Amino acid sequence: MTAVNKSEILNAVQGLPEETSIEEAIERLYLVSKIKTGIQQAESGELLSHDEVKGKFSKWLE
Predict the structure, then answer these.
(1) Which of 24, 27, 35, 28 is nearest to 2 (CA)?
(2) N or C end: fewer C-beta atoms under 10 angstroms in the chain?
(3) DSSP state of 60
(4) Total structural domains in the chain?
(5) Residue 19's domain spans which residues?
(6) What angle do CA 1, 47, 15 make, to 5 degrees?
(7) What is this structure's pTM?
């Protein structure tokens, strides 16, 4: 799992409505973590072209 700064966690939680559930907070934190992981992967070149993705998912796109 990707490490996230405390300030990123606080920003994510502060963006939630005043009345929210623990589940919503966890989902928001999980989303922030996944976005950060994706950015790190993109920056390190771990990308697939559109055609590569279409090839991998071609059976589902029929």
Answers:
(1) 35
(2) C
(3) T
(4) 1
(5) 6-56
(6) 50
(7) 0.75
